Amino acid sequence: MALDQTKLKRDLGISLFIYSLPVLAIFLYFKLNNGHVSESHLTLPTYLEFLQPAFKNIRSWGLIAFSIVLGIVEFAAGLYDDHWTGRERKVDIICFLAPKLLLPPVITFFSLTALPYLLPNLANTLSWVPFWGGFFLIAIADDLTQYWYHRLHHQVPFLWRFHRTHHSAPYMGMAMASRQNFLYTVFFSQIYLTATLTYLGLGLPALFVLVIKSIITLGAHSSLAWDKPFYKYRVLHPIAWVLERLISTPATHHAHHADTSGDGVGHFKGNFGNMFFIWDVIFGTGLITRKFPQSYGTKTYKSEEWYAQFLWPIFKSKIEGSPLADGVLSLPTSQKENAVPTNQNVYEPVQS
Question: What's this model's pTM, rounded to 2 decimal places?
Answer without folding.
Answer: 0.85
